[in-house]
Amino acid sequence: MHQSWRHQAALAALQQGELIAYPTEAVWGLGCDPWSRDAVEQLLALKHRSVDKGLILVAADYSQLGDLVDGLPIEQRRLLAQHNAQPTTWLIAHRARVPSWISGSHSSVAVRISHHPIVKALCEGFGGMLVSTSANRAGQLPAYTELRARAYFGPRVASYVAGSTSGMLNPSHIIDLASGQQLR
Question: Full-prediction pTM beyond 0.85?
Answer without folding.
Answer: yes
